[in-house]
Specification:
seven-stranded mixed β-sheet; 2 domains; Aminopeptidase
Length: 371
């Protein structure tokens, strides 16, 4: 597999001939069946300008004799804020060359080339009745992300456009905020303070200064969990010590997410609404086996200490507990020398009920039945 990086009239003419012939056969390329080779060569010349800037790529497959029998291209999004997104397009294999894995090689070559150009997501559009192509893309890691209904016009017929995408990789420390109301350009409709997903399950909740999110196992959340729980500064009062295995983060987060799915509440990921950074974790979890209370937990990165975030999180947690598990006590088990956590419990109106012996030592039991 090779790439055409600069204007090469011979190569571009051969690619144009291959693509124009496919369009004339009625293949779903988004092109008119009457497009001419000079017209498509003009398109390829413009593509080469983008390719020289690192914003596009044209892959070609050739026989040993140099005949071009396959091609595919990618182009980066023109929007400045979407430079991590590119589109895979015009995957064409000559009829006589099909069945030899050329389509597979073209797709993987495009993915590698786009990744090397710092593209993080590769998308494509495919006609809804092109099931063979959809199956091919799914085998190569593309997932359906949506559809535009009946927007392809072929004579009197109308077909869907299926939208598909494939993750190519993210830089470390990337915050994957998705639809969360956080960061530049975020807004909330008047009076809205919480969001749900397409199935009605809770996804996030806003307090005065915090964005409380249902956990995911996305890399940014798992990395933040390990960074906070693996920091010796956040484990001064933890007899088990700091977390040492980063791979253990995702399974914990998955358990937390399942609590939300099954019970409708649990621990949150705490983010800053200003930039989406994970500040900490906490909330109340459902009653565990052999217990009769909801556990209140909070842990923040040191840079978030001293701002009252734990108290703000605690108030939201108690309000949720009163709604989802009325009459059930909420308990915070705190090491005797952990004075900051004791002050948080006291500000929340929790009362000291005494000491309890746990597997790793003695804890103070602070409790409240929220109303």
């Amino acid at each position: 597999m090779t790439f055409v990086r600069k204007s090469d009239r011979t190569a571009l003419a051969a690619v144009a001939e291959l693509v124009v012939a496919a369009a004339a056969r009625g293949e779903a390329l988004g092109l008119s069946t009457e497009i001419t080779r000079p017209e498509y060569e003009n398109h390829l010349e413009k593509l080469m300008i983008d390719a020289e800037r690192g914003d596009a790529g044209l892959a070609v497959a050739q026989t040993d004799e140099g005949t071009i029998i396959g091609t595919a291209q990618w182009t980066r999004s023109p929007y400045p804020t979407r430079r991590v997104l590119a589109e895979l397009d015009r995957v064409v294999v000559a009829p006589e060359a099909r069945g030899a894995g050329i389509g597979t090689a073209l797709i993987e070559a495009i993915a590698a080339d786009a990744r090397a150009a710092s593209v993080e997501v590769l998308m494509l559009e495919v006609r809804g009745n092109n099931h063979a192509a959809i199956a091919l893309y799914e085998r190569h890691g593309f997932h359906r992300t949506g559809a535009l209904r009946n927007v392809v016009a072929v004579g009197a017929a109308r077909h869907d456009v299926i939208l598909m995408s494939r993750e190519l990789g993210r830089p470390k420390d990337t915050d994957l905020l998705g639809e969360l109301p956080a960061g530049l350009g975020a807004s909330l409709p008047r009076g809205v303070t919480r969001g749900v997903d397409s199935t009605g399950h809770p996804e996030w909740q806003r307090t005065e200064r915090l964005l409380l999110c249902v956990p995911t196992t996305d890399p940014d959340v798992a990395d933040a969990y390990f960074a906070i729980h693996g920091d010796p500064a956040t484990n001064v009062h933890n007899p088990a010590g700091a977390m040492v295995d980063p791979d253990a983060a995702a399974p914990v987060l998955e358990v937390w997410r399942q609590h939300w799915r099954s019970e409708g509440f649990g621990y949150w990921v705490v983010r800053s609404p200003q930039d989406g950074q994970v500040l900490g974790f906490g909330g109340v979890r459902p009653v565990a086996e052999d217990e009769d209370f909801l556990n209140l937990y909070y842990r923040f990165r040191p840079s978030a200490w001293g701002k009252g975030y734990a108290t703000e999180l605690g108030r939201a947690s108690l309000a949720l507990a009163a709604k989802m598990a009325p009459g059930v006590p909420v308990v915070a088990l705190i090491r005797p020398r952990n004075e900051p956590s004791i002050r948080v419990a006291q500000r929340l109106g929790m009362r000291l009920e005494g000491e309890v012996q746990r597997q790793l030592g003695i804890y103070l039991r602070y409790a409240i039945v929220p109303e």
